[in-house]
């Protein structure tokens, strides 16, 4: 640790600031006017700009590209070799994997009074959903990840499917990601099932076990004759996947299923789209044609398609009373978006702070969304084709929902931003590695701190004061371009011309009012107590506490 | 009593008994709604002596009255209306868009309203639409029924399915005729007698004298002049105006002759913290010969002298430099630099008139177009240019406000006539700078002083809204643009305005069609001629009733003594969904949070309120 603590002897032109790496592995610039605080995990790329012969102000120094929509540029003096040292130290600590160094989360010795790793317990979560039941059982077939190495060890499958059936189905699904239960409707018992694409290939292969298995899933709910399959991809992409051995469920093979394509594009399209968003917001906001520039990024259009898909899933399960199977290609990107958003719409439990943590932990982390590949924690290869802002897109969708339903979520915007900040920061183990088996090998839960420890030990900061707890209300957001907005407080927060209004003034004022009311009620009670003490017979007083309080409390 | 029967001439209900019963039912309901507390005959005999203005019927005014081409006065019984009503009633179903259930019942057209009276077994109340608020009407017949689509000035779209082809056509024609009546004194405000309000109330709320009292407390460099007492110096100014103390009435009159429409520079706002002032006027009539006017120059010199020795001034011209130059060819122009020492001219071109109306129409079209592929929504929104106009207005207002607050300079704002973009800039600048104008009463006073009494021609500008097929003449949504800018301020400073979106929506609705007289006519002079102040109710007294407060107030308000500088970055400006998507979006979730805030505030006030009761009930020792 002491190794990291040393100041980097570096002088910046103009202002005398001293960037140093502190014990939390953050790049911090201290100056009376400016505090810049960047966790090194956020850095995706470090470049030297200018050479010994560069002339002109600010032409020599370091250019740092971050994963969270900002770039930093340090202008340095050319004398000495301070830049070389700075560059080396930054590179070592921003990209520890390339230098056989541990990721910061393994060095972080922070202590919290709650243990975030305890938040998610799959057995408890399935029990909350009423599982196992007559039709669904919990299986430990994947205990040592031998059935599917990217799935969690504990799975919920149809009661009537034997372990042998599961193994045979696994051979016909991409990366063995067989259809397993994500969520069950508490009343009509329809289910959301997730998996990867079937391995149909060019020849149009069929698999009797897979067909039978889907039929068994359909039969767990006797209300409707067909199982609905949502393929998240555009139709053409699904067809194209046949060339690489994948594909989709054909009508001929699956008589009792109907298939819909949801037209959501792949990780590469999303990455390029976000790149364009960055281009128009940082460092300067594209002023003259803001809206059409925003449109040309297609970011909001992608958000719309993801939300529309999730709404369809939720509606099918809730109103259509039909069980739903969701997959894309591998079932760890778009599938996770769709199942988790649909669950958020259907189940109010997931709209609480802990419920949301469980949702992320379950649908994203345990089911193998490839966080390490998508984010590239500690990896210097910034141009890797595996990078993609899929999880960010999910959080954006959640934000859009919270905008449209201001009282439905227990958490506020700060909660979502904090999650995204630590998606990159490498301070916590929560988002490290691609799947549960890898996390288990690295003993992540023992050796790192969970992000939920930070959040749950200071919940007040992340609470939405307008939250009204509701049970069984399905939220259908309006997924029309008219009602979607760019999340300015996230994407444009680093723009130097935007003044941050933090914390949210409306929330603050509301809390103030709440506190004021409580104080008034307290004072009222005290006065009433004093009052009734003075009266010999309190029942004659028109304002005795027993009579006043119900009136005051009607709205609690 | 005659009122209603006369208007339902050819009812198609076959049973006369039923008809009679229906009519009396409607009458009862009308009376309940406060719509029939007095009949037109009663209003026509309204005593003019109660007019608060001195000599309201002076010979000069009478002359002007004939020039104004006012509509005919209603004779006893209101025969003019009955001639326009082709049919009184029909069975119809009303579709009110998403969220509201359809309504079935008997449809009636009266002189000012479209009524739908649900059957006796129905639980819902009488549905009522002011005919004046109909912007366009479209009829379709098929088989033995018809459909009328009403597009209202508040952007609502209503559909009426009517039984009978004849009835449909007749009702459509009646609505068409009645909704486009131009006469002011036969309009509904002259008949509206709501319960609980008295005529003449609240009309005296915001006279120029009232604002002058505030200015006089802050400085004595200004005086209240009655040079325009009979509206002869400037027909679009109020009777009393605030002007530099050093300038006498004769000089004002001469300056007025040098300004378009007689709108000489007058005080709009005195900014006490910096001791500077905001003035407004119309363009100077320099013309191609570059004429000058000594009194006008003296007036502006006196403004600087009154502020502080050596004070500077900026003239914010809301036209481009080129447009201002071109205006000379038609007799207008702009202040020559040499003639006004100490004043510097800045040009901030702002859109007005026809292009602004077209922008509004395009935006409403885009918002209502639910079928078109929405992938192009953002570029279409941009193509409407409405947000660009919002940005222009706010940045020009910021410029004016900055000049006063940070440069300590006096500001004169004008464009051409000085009745549109000029008022937009001066009123917004005050909201930015003046915490008092952000309170409920302060804002109402601002609207009254800077828009209504300042002579924004509401009747011309708001004759039609965005749906009308009529060829636009003088329509322009300048006032709506102002409300939109205020909404943007409120969004960026959610605690600093005492009023909420509800008040802005109400002002928009009432500016285009209202049972109240506040937004009638184009100027104080016309309002005086029509006796608006004595014969109609003021919107302010309507809005300031306790039952309306919850809709209009911002429960989170805390006084912010500072200037509020809005961001005009493109990502900071949003489409005002509450107005433009008001009738197409589901309202309920977004209102839930608001409802929670109200609950807490009411709870708090209740506890606050009950506290003294408790102490008071303490037995005295």
TrEMBL record, chain A:
Domain called Myotubularin phosphatase: residue spans: 116-491
What's in the keyword line of the UniProt record? Answer: Cell membrane, Cell projection, Cytoplasm, Endosome, Hydrolase, Lipid metabolism, Membrane, Protein phosphatase
Q: Which reaction does it catalyse?
A: 1,2-dioctanoyl-sn-glycero-3-phospho-(1-D-myo-inositol-3-phosphate) + H2O = 1,2-dioctanoyl-sn-glycero-3-phospho-(1D-myo-inositol) + phosphate; 1,2-dioctanoyl-sn-glycero-3-phospho-(1D-myo-inositol-3,5-bisphosphate) + H2O = 1,2-dioctanoyl-sn-glycero-3-phospho-(1D-myo-inositol-5-phosphate) + phosphate; a 1,2-diacyl-sn-glycero-3-phospho-(1D-myo-inositol-3,5-bisphosphate) + H2O = a 1,2-diacyl-sn-glycero-3-phospho-(1D-myo-inositol-5-phosphate) + phosphate; 1,2-dihexadecanoyl-sn-glycero-3-phospho-(1D-myo-inositol-3,5-bisphosphate) + H2O = 1,2-dihexadecanoyl-sn-glycero-3-phospho-(1D-myo-inositol-5-phosphate) + phosphate
Q: How does it sit in the membrane?
A: Peripheral membrane protein
Broad enzyme group: hydrolase
List the Pfam families hit by this protein, alphabetically. Answer: GRAM, Myotub-related
Predominant place of localization: membrane
The record's subcellular locations are: Cell membrane; Cell projection, Filopodium; Cell projection, Ruffle; Cytoplasm, Myofibril, Sarcomere
Assembly with partners or alone: Heterodimer with MTMR12. Interacts with KMT2A/MLL1 (via SET domain). Interacts with DES in skeletal muscle but not in cardiac muscle. Interacts with SPEG.
Q: What does this protein do?
A: Lipid phosphatase which dephosphorylates phosphatidylinositol 3-monophosphate (PI3P) and phosphatidylinositol 3,5-bisphosphate (PI(3,5)P2). Has also been shown to dephosphorylate phosphotyrosine- and phosphoserine-containing peptides. Negatively regulates EGFR degradation through regulation of EGFR trafficking from the late endosome to the lysosome. Plays a role in vacuolar formation and morphology. Regulates desmin intermediate filament assembly and architecture. Plays a role in mitochondrial morphology and positioning. Required for skeletal muscle maintenance but not for myogenesis.
- Please give the name of this protein: Myotubularin
Report the gene name: MTM1
TrEMBL record, chain B:
Q: Which family does it belong to?
A: Belongs to the protein-tyrosine phosphatase family. Non-receptor class myotubularin subfamily.
Which InterPro entries does its entry note? Myotubularin, Myotubularin-like_Pase_dom, PH-like_dom_sf, Prot-tyrosine_phosphatase-like
Q: Which SUPFAM superfamilies match?
A: (Phosphotyrosine protein) phosphatases II, PH domain-like
Q: Gene3D superfamilies per the record? A: Pleckstrin-homology domain (PH domain)/Phosphotyrosine-binding domain (PTB)
Q: Where is the Myotubularin phosphatase domain?
A: 202-580
Protein's UniProt name: Myotubularin-related protein 9-like
PROSITE patterns, per database record: PPASE_MYOTUBULARIN
Reading the lineage from the top rank, the first entry is Eukaryota
* Gene from which this protein is expressed: LOC103552082
